[in-house]
Amino acid sequence: MSLTQEKMRADIAEALEIAPEEITAEANLFDLGLDSMRLMSLVMTWQDEAEDADLSEIWEHQTFAGWWGVVAAQHAGA
Question: pTM of the full predicted structure?
């Protein structure tokens, strides 16, 4: 899996048009302005980068830490 925590943070920041530093581990990404369409686009991009990953659990989380936990669990299981 080539998706890193830094890349994931940068992708989210780009989608929200904010600085990556604004995305803290416990920040609610939806409170920062993320909507379901942008989330879907991000997940599709990340799944293309990690073809064997199942990121469907991301939808259950609202924080960057939660999202990274899903990715890290996929990476550990690979």
Answer: 0.88
